[in-house]
Design a protein that fits this description.
The chain is an all-alpha fold and 219 residues long. Among the domains are: 68 residues; 82 residues, Serine Threonine Protein Phosphatase 5, Tetratricopeptide repeat (Alpha Horseshoe), CATH 1.25.40.10. The chain is built from eight helices and two strands; from the N terminus they run ββαααααααα. Strands 1-2 form a two-stranded antiparallel ribbon. Helix 1 packs across helix 3 and helix 6 packs antiparallel against helix 7.
């Protein structure tokens, strides 16, 4: 290797074709720092991306398991999986649970409900509450809610409350599908039952008044 040729003022070096500034140690250090800074940034970004991808995958896995548990009727375990997903990433879990996974849960809950030929009114009500908490416009659930409320065997609450529940369910369906024939027929049935119940109440009050009057007239 030939010796470097310096300029007379000692500030330039001959490259073989032209005079160039003599490289300084500080320039080299600055350049090395910039390079190392870029490498460190790339590593940090890569780690962050991997962490985000792993978190997303883990949360989704928990929510998928929750779906399977719902379809099996294991609601406590489904709720537990949702709680675990929130511990991993609360915001992501709640957004997916109430957004992307909402329809999956409605389908799973409805399939679980439809798979039972015989189910108590209270268990049916529990399933319907869960479904309608995800989708208040789920027409099959609204129709089943109305029909269950009108079942003669249904002794949950007062009869007037059950009639009101059926009325509200049918009205909700008709807001979504104004020409739904089953809902129209059901609503007319409810209105007829309400009129009968109202008449029975008035007759009952009238009989009580008569008994009171008769009692006072005797004594």
């Amino acid at each position: 290797m030939t010796d470097s040729v310096l300029s007379p003022d000692g500030k330039m070096i001959w490259s073989g074709s032209e005079w160039i500034p003599i490289p300084t140690q500080s320039n080299t250090n600055v350049q090395d720092s910039v390079i190392m800074g870029d490498i460190n940034t790339q590593i940090e970004n890569s780690v962050q991306n991997n962490y985000t991808q792993d978190t997303d995958k883990l949360v989704r896995n928990h929510l998928h398991i929750a779906t399977e548990k719902m379809e099996q009727g294991l609601f406590l375990q489904a709720d537990e999986m949702y709680e675990r997903s929130k511990q991993i990433d609360y915001q992501l879990a709640t957004e997916l649970y109430n957004g992307e996974f909402r329809d999956k849960y409605v389908i799973a809950l409805w399939n679980e409900l439809a798979s039972h030929a015989q189910m108590s009114v209270r268990n049916i009500a529990d399933r319907l509450f869960r479904i309608l908490s995800f989708d208040e416009d789920h027409i099959p659930s609204l129709m089943l809610l109305a029909e269950t409320s009108l079942e003669p065997q249904n002794d949950v609450g007062l009869k007037s409350e059950r009639l009101q529940t059926a009325e509200m369910a049918y009205q909700r369906v008709l807001l979504i599908e104004p020409d739904n024939k089953e809902a129209l027929t059901g609503l007319r049935r409810v209105e007829r039952m309400m009129r009968i119940a109202g008449s029975s109440l008035r007759i009952g009050v009238f009989l009580i008044v008569l008994l009171i009057v008769a009692f006072h007239s005797i004594f």
